[in-house]
Amino acid sequence: MAIKVTMPRLSDTMTEGTVATWLKKVGDKVSEGDILAEIETDKATMEFESFNEGTLLHIGIQAGETAPVDSLLAIIGKEGEDISALLAGGDAPAAEAPKADAPAAEAKTEAAAPAKAAAELPKGVVVVTMPRLSDTMTEGTVATWLKKVGDTVAEGDILAEIETDKATMEFESFNAGTLLYIGIQEGSTAPVDSLLAIIGPAGTDISGVADNFTAGGAATASAPAAEETKAAAAQATQAVAETSNGGRILASPLAKKIASDKGIQLSQVKGSGENGRIVKSDIENFTPSPQAQTAASAPAAKQESSAPAAPKVFVPAGEVYTEEIKNSQMRKIIAKRLSESLFTAPHYNLVIEVSMDEAMQARAAINSVPDTKVSFNDMVIKACALALKKHPKINSTWKEDAIIINHHVNIGVAVAVEDGLVVPVLKFTDAMSLSQIGGSVRDLAGRAKNKKLGPQEMEGSTFTVSNLGMFGITEFNSIINQPNSAILSVGAIVEKPVVKNGQIVVGNTMMLSLACDHRTIDGATGAQFLQTLKQYIESPVTMLA
Predict the structure, then answer these.
(1) pTM of the entire predicted model
(2) Where do the domains of the chain lie, and which CATH numbers do they carry?
(3) Which residues are known catalytic residues?
């Protein structure tokens, strides 16, 4: 059955989109996950992924053209399928055709009734599925439902908070109606494309819809709705704060952080964003009333003068006490991905000691320039980017039938966050200056800790750097961040006696450990990369050549 693909809503403020490039042409085969086109929104140019399989039968918006959200973008179906009714404005010609050919008696039999119910949904009813909110997401956990069965839902309302492998994100409704059914309860985890909810006119009989969907019968009929829900992959993460009386306040993570730093209660701030969300400008422009200031300062003063708070948990001496903490979706995905990496890729580690004396002098000189701040980690990242250009086999990916050599350099930087670890990516790192690397790393790390990173900012790495030197760790080995073939572990700079020109002097050294996938990188190749990396770091001026 042919499926209409509409212009997706890729941001909360997007009303129209421009097709920058089509990556498929009419007649091409399309698989689920293939990139159909690059679409320019009001915020960025983003790749638009197909959530259907078949043949691209029609392109409704040509490259360079702009059209409103929900305009006909393309039609995907079986090769040679008649789509004239769809082009004329019909909804499902392919579903109608069999009815015309089928015998009338057969259509009326009870045996045909379940098939009809599976192929059609009641008028106005939309099946909402678990969206794919990141490139690595295979399942999601419903953290909180913000609507309950029977509630009225408007387009743009937040239905639920969904915990992915990378963050907890608000899931926005792209349909209006009444929430008729909830398929995944709070705290439950389900695969992508599972039945999340059903929305439609109040009082609609949806008996059998959920069962048919679970059995796979309604999957085709609900494909356009599923496609709309998956367009939420590019939505910005926004946090939900709770007031002391249990009421909910919508606020962006950045607004929450600034409010926390300034000691502002979100309940006192009026949001100017969509649906009353509190955004950064609301906090920056907020002036508390004298009564609010007095009320806010009183509890603080009382708390300072009071005795220290009692421990949360009292464990009598000699008694066994355990605490069970439910694994977050991020923690489960970290466990899954790293286990797969360690048990499928034959790891080996190469360690080299690097003199940091000249690097320390160079960094001091660079940072003496006004408005310039470069860290040792930034220098290591820059050195890695240049060394990867000289040793492209390190910058590779293993496939069962081939080794993919990446001639572009996208370095992922491991960042510890409250729930685990994320790896934002510096795209085309080799073309960036030290100051650009420094600024980008600070920006990405800051937004990672505030859960403000978009999924696209954590995709596409070709090599990874992990630094625990700031914690005083002198040497460690990391697990490869697949599909990368290597990861560099950076230790702390240590002041110790070293031998120079036959004399024992005080020097500063740093240990670097390179974990390699032996399927793609031989020992000699990894060693040559580390030698080049050492040369760049020990003579920073060579990075400017």
Answers:
(1) 0.52
(2) 1-101 (2.40.50.100), 330-544 (3.30.559.10)
(3) 518, 522
